[in-house]
Structure formats: structure tokens, C-alpha cells
Amino acid sequence: MTTAIHRNANYWINHLQLTKHIEGGWYNEVYRSSLILKKQQLPASFSNDKTICTHIYFLLQKHGFSAFHRIKSDELWHFYAGDPLIVYEIDRAGTLTEHVLGNDPEKGHTLFTAIKAGNWFASRVKNGSDYSLVGCTVAPGFDFEDFELANNTTLTTAYPQHTELINQLIV
């Protein structure tokens, strides 16, 4: 007989050696491919060669959030442990999608979601939850030069229908 062990956010932060992320939450890059895509193989929006793929562990705690930002690559989110995480995605047309990552399909949770390159996105744990541990895979690989943290005025001007949510998830 196995006994379930409850692991809290601090356990994962320490065990996975997570550090604070600029957008909020905690992270650790655990994979960076050695394969390189040359600039001429990439869309014009990329200014340099890129590794083919990267992966991080990412953890958010209650009362925290990952602020609205966007990157030039697709970002694939994988649920690992803890409570449900809501990933808010605003596409170029202004459509808001709420992706709920978690381990209970009966409650509409999914174990995986994809955020399209160039879309604005933010996340936070579902109300009443403690923490969520996920993984984020980026292809072409993540580079901070391809990362843009949202400006409140710019984002609310572009998507006024989402002003309340944007104001909650901006730094």
C-alpha cells in the first residue's frame, strides 16, 4: 500500500531549485537543445540564431500571478502537480481564451495547452488554490530578447474589453 505524500509549493521550489521569474512566479530552465536553427531558417521576426527547443519548470502560488507578456515562439504548457492553473490568452483579434490546466478532466481541466506565438498571455492559480507546478516548452527555444512584458496602457488600449483582467495581471 502506498501513501500519498502532500508536497507544498516550498517543497517544489527547493527540490527543483526554482528562482524568481521577472513575470512572476518561480522557474528553472531544465532543458536547452544543442540543435540550432539559423536566422535564415526562422521567420523574419527573429533577429538571431535560436536553439530548437527549451523547457522550464514553472510554479505559481496563490496571490501571485504571471503577468501578461508575449514571446515570438509557441509555448506549450504541461500540468505536473498542485492545483489548477488558469492561463489567459488574448489573440491578435482580441479573443480571450481561458485554458485551465489541472488533473481533473471532469472539471474541464486539461493536462496540456498551447499558446500561439505573438499572443498575449498571463496565468494564476484558480481561486481557492494553493499552488500549481507546470512545465513550459518553447520552440524555437526561449530567449529573453524575444520576451515582451505588457505595458498596461498599450494592452488596455488595444483590448479595452479585457481591461479588468489586464489590470489584475500586469506589473
Strand neighbour order, sheet with most strands: 1-2-5-12-7-10
Q: What's the name of the CATH homologous superfamily?
A: Jelly Rolls
- State the low-pLDDT regions, or none: none
* Gyration radius from CA atoms, angstroms: 16 Å
Proportion of beta-strand residues: 35-45%
CATH class: Mainly Beta
Identify the overall geometry: globular
Which CATH architecture is right? Sandwich
> What's the β-strand tally?
13
Kindly state the mean pLDDT as a whole number? 95
Question: Which features characterize this protein?
Answer:
171 residues; Jelly Rolls; six-stranded antiparallel β-sheet; 3 helices; 41% strand
Molecular structure report:
It is a single chain. With 171 residues, this protein is mainly beta. It has a single domain (9-168), classed as Jelly Rolls (Sandwich). 12% of the residues lie in helices and 41% in strands. It has three helices and 13 strands. The protein has a six-stranded antiparallel β-sheet, with helices on one face. Strands 9-8-11-6-13 form a five-stranded antiparallel β-sheet, with no helix packed on it. It has a two-stranded antiparallel sheet with strand order 3-4. A hairpin with a 5-residue loop joins strand 1 (19-20) and strand 2 (26-32). 33% of the residues are buried. The model has no long low-confidence stretch (mean pLDDT 95).
